[in-house]
Amino acid sequence: MKLKIREGTISDDELCGAIMLGALVSADIPRSFLKDDVLILPLRSNLRFIAFYDQTPAGFCDYSVSKSHINYLFVDPLFQANGVGTCLLENVQRRLETPISVNVLCRNEKAILWYLKKDFTVTKLWSEQFNGQLTAWLKLTKKPS
After folding, report:
1. Selecting from 3.40.50.1580, 2.40.50.100, 3.10.50.40, 3.40.630.30, what CATH number does the domain 3-142 have?
2. CA distances from 56 to 21, 29, 50, 94 (A)
3. What is the distance between the alpha carbons of residues 23 and 80, in angstroms, rounded to a whole number?
4. pLDDT digit string (tens) for 71-96?
5. What is the pLDDT of residues 6-42, one digit of tens each?
6. pTM
7. What gap in Å lies between CA 114 and CA 20, rounded to an integer?
8. Coil, strand, or helix at residue 19?
9. Cα torsion at 47, 108, 15, 75 (round to 10°)?
10. Which of 27, 44, 48, 119 could join 8 via S-S bond, C-beta 3.0 to 4.6 A?
């Protein structure tokens, strides 16, 4: 099996939405991105990498250069534990070469543990309204190697 990474564009918004939809539980899907039960993930002013595993979309990462922040990093559950997320993260790290941050829902224990294994540290904890509920978040940060 072969993993390939390419830069994404706004034409990939629906593809990335489908990957995100498959990786999230319904309570964690940003309702503002849903249109007729299709999740459209707008790229806006971010940059994007998309991972393909044997030509099948397997994951993506949207990130901000100006903020050195990962907005979204999702891997389709069928391709998790195959190095897809690690490869996406490494591409972002090479691009930014600065400390990188990411916000993760506190209830997403699997993601938090994954980032901690990648040498991220918890730098902030807060709660805010998300999908109509008060929701706890963590900010994790990693210094460049």
Report:
1. 3.40.630.30
2. 16, 22, 10, 24
3. 10
4. 999 999 999 999 999 999 999 999 99
5. 999 999 999 999 999 888 877 777 777 777 777 787 8
6. 0.91
7. 17
8. helix
9. 90
10. 48
